[in-house]
Amino acid sequence: MLTADVYGAAGAAGLSAGWSVGPGGWSWNLLTDLRQMWAFPFMVNAFRAGTLIAVGAAVMGWFMVLRRQSFAGHTVATVGFPGAAGAALLGVGAVYGYFTFCVAAALVIAALPRAGRAAGGHESAVTGTVQAFLLACGFLFTTLYKGLLGGVTSLLFGSFLGITTAQVWLLFAVTAAVLAVLAVIGRPLLFASVDPDVAAGRGVPVRLLSTAFLVLLGAAAAEASQITGSLLVFALLVMPAATAQILSARPAVSLALSVAIAVAVTWLGLITAYYSPYPIGFYVTTFAFAGYVVAYVMTRSVRFAGGRT
Amino acid sequence: MGTSAGQVIAAPGWAGALTHPYFQHALLAGTAIAAASGLVGYFLVLRAQVFTGDALSHVSFTGALAALALGYDLRLGLFAATIAVALLLGTLGRGGRADDVAIGSVFSWILGLGVFFLTLYTTSRSAGNGGAGVNVLFGSVFGLSAGQALTAALVAAGICAAVVAIARPLLFASVDEAVAAARGVPVRLLGFVFLVLVGACAAEATQAVGSLLLLGMLAAPAGAAQRLTDRPYRALALSAGLAVAEMWAGLGLSYAVPGVPPSFGVMAAATAVYGAAYALGARGGARGSLRLPLTP
User: CA nearest B124: which of B61, B81, B76, B70?
Assistant: First the structure.
């Protein structure tokens, strides 16, 4: 099934699996390689989509990490899978399924009471139940829609093959919208994230901001699901942001770093996946994790040497 | 795939269910696994460590696929991976509780690694079973053999016994860490022991409901039990009881309605019970904190 996915689609584009067996092979000259890759329209679209997704996920992920809402983010991202499966069952495009479910899950989580550590257990129990139930629904949908079974793994773990130009435009619109809304609420959201009590005291609508944030997170996750699959979106949300926040404590700098890391990781993932038989999700998560570990070890050793400059 | 095999055999008539060996095996393993998940899940919710359980459930996917890709028994990989990562998460955090960004980063990478092993397994092994990935993700409780079911039941019973054995100090350490530590309860050690139990339980439950859905098994009965009662031991027992009942309901549902996978049945039952408990709890007015009958 997955074999057929990977080899079938790649074969159709005139590729074969393995390093250095691509058209012309890997030449260690990045420019030539990129030009070769971009001779294929599907790769151009993959790069466009990947870049848009990386930017959106990095910015939203940065706030998510800052607000310690990883679990909610993970749940919002994961429910894209039943959305896509349900859309396939109804015969609608997967994109609509992703967006409907991700945004709906964001609204459910936002509706939960969020107060103090005592409520933490209950909140996460509800989140966990919602997540597992929706995933079970996804499994039911795929069982009912037998033809999709071969596509389960690509819904869950991503595939960059077959992104159309229309999808790229949709992604562009969503990224632009998410970033525009974020530009408007960014400052109060930052304030509300860093110190909710003081922000509330100053008249910042903390709860409303929190809901708006989760909805934006849902949109960003739905968007990113298309390329990394709904299970691995979370990697693109959390890891570049976590790495950036380790590297710099200044908001603007670490936000920019987060975007740079996410784009770099996505491009590296696309290039490597193009030349090898393994799915893109694996490469994106691996590069992102490598960056996180390097940043962590680096700052730890600097601190250990006592030389924080 | 075990599930589809089960659905083909499934004959009309409720009473007939118990005569099928596959159903008996599912019932035996499922009951023990549900009880273990209910007990472990109660503490997960109490300690606000549900995200850790989520992470371990994803790790179990990678462990199982790694073992399959390398040619070992799936269960070996399940236990090795979940317990190792449980300990890793424990060391990353303070007092055996991990930070959520660290958890997120570790498990999203490990899940990516799981995809790698899945591809390795499905492409390199000619004997490879194409549905293995889907089975690990979503469970195949109707595909257990008698031996597998018995092993699963015994391991789950062991986990239950261990949880009951450390329930008292663990409860104390979970509710008031500082006071427990001051009274000489080994808080950090308990944190680690508990994480190992969560890992073992995750490995165990993956075989029944699959690595993606096991979070529901851990969170839903425990959340419902905590909504229904303030007394810790009663809630602990209720959590295990609800989990077992939901497992039975799920198995029965999927037997009665062919085409419904058993893990969906279990999750549907669990979600329904949680929803009901939520509504009841909300009507009951403001909930007090836990009533603790604890004296060290």
Answer: B70
CA distance A238 to chain B (A): 6
d(CA B216, CA B38): 10
Q: What's the CA gap between A48 and A38, in Å, rounded?
A: 11
* Interface contact A232-B226, CB threshold 8 A: no
Amino acid at A218: G
Residue of chain A with shortest Cα separation from B4: A143
Minimum distance, in Å, between the CA of residue A134 and any CA atom of chain B: 9
Cα–Cα distance, A86 to A84 (Å, whole number): 5
For this complex, say whether ipTM is above 0.90. Answer: no
DSSP per position, A90-153? HT--HHHHHHHHHHHHHHHHHHS---TTTTHHHHHHHHHHHHHHHHHHHHHHHHHSGGGGGGHH
Cβ atoms B85, B59 nearer than 8 A: yes
Residue A108: how many other CB atoms lie within 10 Å: 16
Q: How many CB atoms lie within 10 A of CB B161?
A: 11
Residue B39 structure tokens: 């007990």
CA–CA dist B250, B254 (Å, integer): 6
Long-range contacts of A170-175 (CB under 8 A, 24+ apart): A170/A95, A171/A48, A171/A49, A171/A52, A171/A53, A171/A223, A171/A226, A172/A52, A174/A56, A174/A219, A174/A220, A174/A222, A174/A223, A175/A52, A175/A53, A175/A55, A175/A56, A175/A223
CA A60 from centroid of its chain's CA atoms: 9
Residue of A68, A71, A231 with shortest CB distance to B111: A231
**Are B274 and A136 within 8 A, CB to CB?**
no
Kindly give, in sequence order, each residue whose CB lies less than 8 Å from that of residue A27, ignoring residues fewer than 6 positions away. A33
pLDDT in tens, chain A (309 residues): 333 333 334 333 333 333 333 455 667 777 787 788 888 888 888 888 889 999 999 999 999 998 888 888 888 888 888 888 888 888 887 778 888 889 988 888 888 765 444 455 667 788 888 888 888 888 888 878 776 555 677 777 777 677 788 888 888 999 999 999 999 998 899 988 888 888 888 888 888 898 999 999 999 888 888 777 777 888 889 999 999 998 988 989 999 999 999 999 999 988 888 888 788 888 999 999 999 999 988 887 877 776 544
* CB atoms B105 and A292 under 8 Å: yes
Distance CA(B107)–CA(B167), nearest Å, equals 28
Residues from chain A that touch B123, judged by Cβ atoms under 8 A, are 2-3, 6, 277
